[in-house]
Amino acid sequence: MDLSQIEDFLELARTLNFSRAAEGRNMTQPAFSRRIRALEDAIGTPLTQRTTRSVTLTQAGRAFLPRAEALVRMAQDARTEALAAAGLAQKTLTLAATHALSYTFVPRWLMGIYGAATAGTLNLVSDSFQSCLQLMARGEAQFFISHRGLGEAPAALQAFRTITIGQDILLPLCAPDKDGEPMWRPGPDAPLLAYAPASGLHAILQGVAGQVRMRSVLAASNLELAKSGQGIAWLPLTLAQDALDSGALVRASDSDQVPVDIVLHRPRARLSAHCEAVWDRAAAT
C-alpha cells in the first residue's frame, strides 16, 4: 500500500464512479481498477461494492475514508514542513471557493487580503461545496471559502479552523411580470429553483417552501433560470446584486431573507509560513 493508491481511493470515494475517478487520476479504467484491488488486498478487505449501476463504499471503506484523508493530509503537511525547514518553501497557496462566491466576493476580498505583503503564486479553484471539502481533506487546498448558516457548523466543517470574513443575505428572487411585480410569491405552490445536495446552500435552505422545478449545484445557473421566468431562486445578494439593480430580477417577498456568514476555513495543523501570514492577515482584517 502506497500513498498514491490511497489517493486513488479518495478520488473513487468522491466520484463513486470508476470511469470518472480513473480520468481524474489520469489513467485508464483497467489500470485504476487494478490499483484499487491492490489497495484492498493490502488492507485485507473490500473497500467498495460495485454493480453494473453503481459504486458504493463498504462498511470497511466508510471506516477507512477519514483515515485515508488524514494520511494524505499528513503527507502534505510533512512535505511542507520539510521544505520550510530547508529554506526551500515556495510562496504558493491554493484557495478553494464555492461557485457562488467565486464570481464576485472572492476577487474583491483577494484584492484586500492578497497584496504586495503576501505576494506569491495563488491558485484559485472554483467548485461545489462538496468538491472543495474533498480538496481540503486531500491536502490539495490550504483554504476554503464558503457560505455558512448562522446555526451550528456542519460536522464536515468542524475539522477545520474557521473565521468569518464577510456577510451575505439569501433572497427569494424571480423575474418580474409586465408590470414590474414578481411573477410568484413564496409559498408551497410556487415553482422553486432548488439546490442539489453537493451545494453548500442546500443544507442552509432546507425547509424552504415551494414545488421544486429543478435542482442545481450552481447558484449562477439558478440565477439565469430565475431571470428566464422559470421560478423562484434563493440567491446570495453578493451574486444577484447586478440582476436586481438592472431589474432582471425582483424580490419575490419583501420580508423573507436568510442571513449567512461568509467564512474562511483552514486545517488545524500548522501551514507554511506564507499561508500562516495570509491567515493572520485575514483574521486581522
Automatic annotation (TrEMBL):
The keyword Transcription applies. The keyword Nucleus does not apply. InterPro entries: LysR_HTH_N, LysR_subst-bd, WH-like_DNA-bd_sf, WH_DNA-bd_sf. Transmembrane segments: none annotated. GO terms for molecular function: DNA-binding transcription factor activity; transcription cis-regulatory region binding. Coiled coil: none annotated. Residues 1-58 form the HTH lysR-type domain. Gene3D superfamilies: 3.40.190.290, Winged helix-like DNA-binding domain superfamily/Winged helix DNA-binding domain (1.10.10.10). Pfam families: HTH_1, LysR_substrate. Keywords: DNA-binding, Transcription, Transcription regulation. Belongs to the LysR transcriptional regulatory family. This is DNA-binding transcriptional LysR family regulator. It comes from Donghicola tyrosinivorans.
